[in-house]
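Q: what sequence does this backbone want?
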C-alpha cells in the first residue's frame, strides 16, 4: 500500500507538471465516459432496473400475441376475453386497465386529467395497497352502482392538501360525482407511462346484458402475477389454449385473437428498447475511440520519457514496477475523466429525458444512482488499464542499451510503438466510419419518411380530442347532437373554412380495427366476421376538411343519419384487397363491433397513412357519425392561414356548449405528424452528435500521430533534404503516410458497417442497410478530415532546417 501511495503521489505531480497533456486526455475521456454514463443511466432506469412493485419478476403482460413475431409485445384485449382469462387461468391472477382522461372541475375551469380505469383486483395483483382507505371491491365492477375513485398521492396532496379526511368526499369527473375511497402511497405510478395517472376508477366487467357484445372491441391491457411454481412460458401456453377455445366459441369476434404473455418489463419497454440499444452501441464506439486517442497520447509521452524509464531500469527498478507506475498514471487520468464525465452525464441524462419526444417508460426512475456510479467507476478502471496497457508494454519490450544510446529518441527498436499508434488511429477511423454510416443511413431514412405523402393536407389544420361522458350523454342521439353542435360552432369561428369530427386521427398512434363482411360471401355462421379493416366514424365534412380526394361516388351528407339507409365509404386499399378489378359502388359490406347491418358502398376515397408514415395504407371503411356514434372523437378544423387565436376561440365555444367539458391540448395537425417522426429524429440527432464527436477525436488522433511521426523522423527528413529532397517530396512523404492510415481505417470501417447492417435494418425506411451512396459519402468525409489533419504536420515537415536538426543530433 505504501508503494501504491507513492505511485499515486508521483503520478499526480507528473500530471500536474504537464497540464496540456493532462487536460486533453481528461477531456477526451470525459466525452467518452460521460456519454456512456448518460446512456447507461437511461438504459439502467428503463431496461435493467426491476419494476417498482413487490415481486416484480412475477408480473406478466397478457393479451393478443403478435403471430408474425415481428414485435415482442402483446396487444390489447376485450373486456369479455379478460374475464375469461381471469376465471379460467390457473397459472396467474390477472387484472385489467386502460388509460383515460376525465374532465375534472377543480376550480372554475374544467381540465382534462390523465387517469386509468382498472379492474377491482389491480392493486392486489401489483402487490401495492392504498396508503389511506381501501382499494376497489369486486362488487364495484357491477353496473348501476355508486361511482368510486382512488386518488394518487400527488393529486391528493395538490387538491386536498394532504387532508386524511378526504376519504368519503366526492370528486366531480365528467359531470358525475365519484366517492373517494382510497389514496395510493407516494411514488406509486401505474400504468407506467410518460403522463402518469392521477387517479383510478373501477371498470364495469359483469352483470350487463350487453357486456358480451364488447368481445370484439379490444381496448384494455392485461397484467398478471404468476402463481408460485409457474414460468412465463407456462402462462403463455395456458393463454394460448384459452384463446383457442374462445376462437371456437366466438369465431365472429375472436377470429384474429391469439392469446399470449411475456414479462411486464419487456412489454413496457418494447418500443424504447431498439433505439436505446442502438444508442448504447454508439457510445461504446465513442468510448473506444476516446481510449484509442488517450492511448496514442500516452505512447507519445512514453516515447519522450524513454530515457527516464531506461535510467530507472538501469538503477535497478523492476520492469513490472515501472509498468505499475504507468498503469497508475493512466487509471488516475481515467478516474479524473470519469469524475468530469459523471458531471457531464448528469446534465446529459436530464437533456436526454427533457428533449426526448418518445414516451420514455419509467423516465421518473432514471437517475445517477449507486449502480450508475459503480458502472462508471468500473468503466474508468477498465479504460485506464486499456489505454495504459499499450505504452506499458512498450516499456517491457524496450532495449535498455539502444534506448540509452539514442537518448530516449526511440524505445521501440523495430518500430513496434509506431506500428501500435498507427493501428490505434486506423481503429479510430474505422469506428468513426461505422458511426457516420449509421447516422447517415438513419438520416436518409428520416428524409425519405418526411417526403412520404400522408394522403391528406395537414397545413393549417387544428385538432382537439374530446371524450364526452356517457353518463351525461346516454343515448347515441345525444352524443351525435353534441358533436354536430360543436362542429357547427367551430365552423362559425372567424377564419375557419371547414370543420369535422373523426373517431381516430391519422398518425396519432391510435387505431380501430373491426370485423368486416362482404354481401354474398360464404360464412361459417351468419354472425361471423371473416375480414378485418380499419374503421372511422366521421361527420359529413371530414374528407373536405382533410382534403382527402374523392375517387368515385359521393361523400356523406347531413341526410345520412340513423333513419337513412346504412352507407359506407371505403378507401382504395380496401378496393384493391377485397374488390380487385370491380366497381365497388352499390355493393354492400358490414362493419361493426358485433353483428351489424349491411351498408351500401356510396363512395371511394384516396388512401391515407393511418398508423405511421412507414406503414402502407390499410383497408379502411368510413361510416357516417350519426349512424355509428362514438363518445370519443377528434375535432379537425381547417383555417385560412395560421390562426393563432383558434385555440382560445375553440375553448370558448366548447365551454358555451357544455361548461363541464374540456378538450385535450389543441394542436396543429402538422405537429401531430412531426411527433410521429420525433422518436426517429431524436435517435438520428444523438447518433449524429456522437458521429461528429467521434470524427473530431479521430482527427485529433491522426494529427497527433502525424505530428509525432514528424518529430521522431526529423533526423531522417533532415538527411533527405540535405541529400536534395524537395519540399514537395517531404510533403508527399508525410501526407501519404497519413492517408494510408486513413485508407486502412476506412476499409476496416466499411467491413464493420456491412457486418452491423442487420442491426439497423428494422429501423430503416426506403433505404438499404448497405446503401452505396451513404457509405461512400461517409468514407469521403472521413478521408477529407484525415487529409486536413495531415496537412499541418506535413507542412511543418517541409519547414525543418536540416542544419539545425543534424547539429542537435
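A:
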Amino acid at each position: 500500500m505504501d508503494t501504491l501511495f507513492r505511485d499515486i503521489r508521483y503520478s499526480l505531480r507528473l500530471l500536474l507538471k504537464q497540464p496540456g497533456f493532462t487536460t486533453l486526455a481528461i477531456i477526451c475521456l470525459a466525452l467518452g465516459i460521460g456519454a456512456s454514463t448518460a446512456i447507461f443511466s437511461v438504459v439502467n432506469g428503463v431496461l435493467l432496473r426491476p419494476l417498482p412493485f413487490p415481486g416484480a419478476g412475477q408480473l406478466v403482460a397478457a393479451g393478443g400475441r403478435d403471430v408474425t413475431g415481428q414485435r415482442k409485445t402483446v396487444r390489447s384485449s376485450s373486456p369479455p376475453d379478460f374475464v375469461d382469462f381471469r376465471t379460467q387461468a390457473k397459472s396467474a391472477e390477472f387484472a385489467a386497465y386502460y388509460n383515460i382522461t376525465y374532465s375534472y372541475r377543480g376550480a372554475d375551469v374544467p381540465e382534462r386529467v390523465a387517469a386509468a380505469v382498472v379492474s377491482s383486483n389491480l392493486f392486489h395483483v401489483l402487490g401495492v395497497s392504498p396508503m389511506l382507505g381501501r382499494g376497489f371491491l369486486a362488487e364495484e365492477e357491477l353496473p348501476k352502482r355508486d361511482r368510486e375513485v382512488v386518488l394518487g398521492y400527488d393529486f391528493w396532496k395538490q387538491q386536498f392538501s394532504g387532508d386524511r379526511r378526504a376519504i368519503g368526499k366526492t370528486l366531480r369527473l365528467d359531470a358525475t360525482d365519484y366517492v373517494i375511497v382510497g389514496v395510493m402511497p407516494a411514488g406509486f405510478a401505474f400504468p407506467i407511462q410518460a403522463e402518469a395517472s392521477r387517479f383510478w376508477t373501477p371498470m364495469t366487467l359483469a352483470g350487463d346484458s350487453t357486456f358480451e357484445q364488447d368481445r370484439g372491441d379490444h381496448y384494455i391491457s392485461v397484467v398478471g402475477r404468476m402463481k408460485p411454481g409457474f414460468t412465463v412460458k407456462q402462462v403463455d401456453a395456458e393463454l394460448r389454449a384459452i384463446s383457442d377455445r374462445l376462437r371456437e366459441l366466438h369465431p365472429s369476434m375472436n377470429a384474429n385473437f391469439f392469446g399470449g404473455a411475456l414479462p411486464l418489463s419487456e412489454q413496457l419497454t418494447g418500443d424504447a428498447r431498439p433505439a436505446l440499444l442502438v444508442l448504447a452501441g454508439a457510445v461504446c464506439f465513442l468510448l473506444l475511440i476516446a481510449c484509442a486517442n488517450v492511448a496514442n497520447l500516452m505512447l507519445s509521452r512514453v516515447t519522450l520519457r524513454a530515457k527516464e524509464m531506461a535510467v530507472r531500469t538501469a538503477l535497478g527498478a523492476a520492469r513490472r514496477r515501472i509498468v505499475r507506475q504507468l498503469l497508475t498514471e493512466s487509471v488516475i487520468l481515467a478516474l479524473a475523466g470519469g469524475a468530469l464525465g459523471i458531471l457531464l452525464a448528469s446534465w446529459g441524462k436530464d437533456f436526454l429525458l427533457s428533449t426526448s419526444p418518445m414516451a420514455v417508460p419509467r423516465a421518473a426512475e432514471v437517475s445517477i444512482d449507486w449502480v450508475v456510479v459503480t458502472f462508471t467507476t468500473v468503466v474508468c478502471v477498465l479504460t485506464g488499464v486499456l489505454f495504459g496497457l499499450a505504452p506499458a508494454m512498450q516499456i517491457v519490450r524496450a532495449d535498455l542499451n539502444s534506448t540509452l544510446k539514442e537518448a530516449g529518441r526511440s524505445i521501440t527498436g523495430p518500430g513496434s510503438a509506431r506500428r501500435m499508434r498507427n493501428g490505434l488511429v486506423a481503429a479510430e477511423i474505422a469506428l468513426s466510419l461505422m458511426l457516420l454510416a449509421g447516422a447517415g443511413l438513419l438520416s436518409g431514412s428520416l428524409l425519405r419518411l418526411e417526403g412520404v405523402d400522408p394522403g391528406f393536407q395537414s397545413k393549417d389544420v387544428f385538432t382537439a380530442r374530446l371524450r364526452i361522458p356517457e353518463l351525461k350523454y346516454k343515448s347515441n342521439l345525444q352524443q351525435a347532437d353534441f358533436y354536430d353542435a360543436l362542429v357547427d360552432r367551430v365552423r362559425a369561428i372567424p377564419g375557419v373554412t371547414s370543420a369535422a369530427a373523426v373517431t381516430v386521427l391519422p398518425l396519432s398512434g391510435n387505431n380501430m380495427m373491426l370485423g368486416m363482411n362482404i354481401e354474398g360471401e360464404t360464412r361459417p355462421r351468419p354472425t361471423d366476421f371473416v375480414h378485418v379493416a380499419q374503421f372511422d366514424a366521421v361527420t359529413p365534412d371530414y374528407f373536405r376538411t382533410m382534403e382527402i380526394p374523392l375517387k368515385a361516388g359521393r361523400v356523406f351528407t347531413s341526410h345520412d343519419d340513423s333513419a337513412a339507409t346504412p352507407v359506407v365509404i371505403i378507401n382504395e386499399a380496401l378496393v384493391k384487397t377485397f374488390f380487385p378489378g370491380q366497381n365497388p359502388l352499390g355493393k354492400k359490406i358490414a362493419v361493426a363491433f358485433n353483428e351489424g347491418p349491411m351498408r351500401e358502398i356510396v363512395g371511394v376515397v384516396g388512401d391515407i397513412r393511418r398508423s405511421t408514415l412507414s406503414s402502407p395504407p390499410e383497408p379502411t371503411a368510413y361510416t357516417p357519425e350519426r349512424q355509428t356514434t362514438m363518445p370519443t372523437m377528434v375535432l379537425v378544423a381547417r383555417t385560412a392561414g395560421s390562426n393563432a387565436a383558434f385555440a382560445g376561440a375553440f375553448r370558448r365555444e366548447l365551454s358555451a356548449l357544455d361548461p363541464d367539458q374540456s378538450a385535450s391540448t389543441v394542436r396543429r395537425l402538422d405537429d401531430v405528424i412531426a411527433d410521429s417522426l420525433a422518436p426517429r429524429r431524436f435517435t438520428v440527432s444523438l447518433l449524429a452528435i456522437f458521429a461528429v464527436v467521434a470524427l473530431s477525436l479521430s482527427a485529433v488522433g491522426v494529427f497527433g500521430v502525424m505530428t509525432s511521426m514528424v518529430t521522431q523522423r526529423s533526423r531522417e527528413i533532415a538527411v533527405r533534404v540535405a541529400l536534395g529532397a524537395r519540399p514537395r517530396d517531404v510533403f508527399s512523404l508525410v501526407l501519404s503516410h497519413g492517408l494510408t492510415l486513413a485508407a486502412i481505417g476506412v476499409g476496416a470501417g466499411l467491413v464493420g458497417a456491412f457486418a452491423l447492417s442487420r442491426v439497423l435494418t428494422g429501423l430503416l425506411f426506403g433505404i438499404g442497410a448497405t446503401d452505396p451512396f451513404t457509405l461512400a459519402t461517409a468514407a469521403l468525409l472521413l478521408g477529407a478530415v484525415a487529409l486536413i489533419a495531415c496537412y499541418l504536420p506535413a507542412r511543418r515537415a517541409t519547414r525543418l532546417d536540416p542544419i539545425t536538426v543534424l547539429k542537435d543530433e
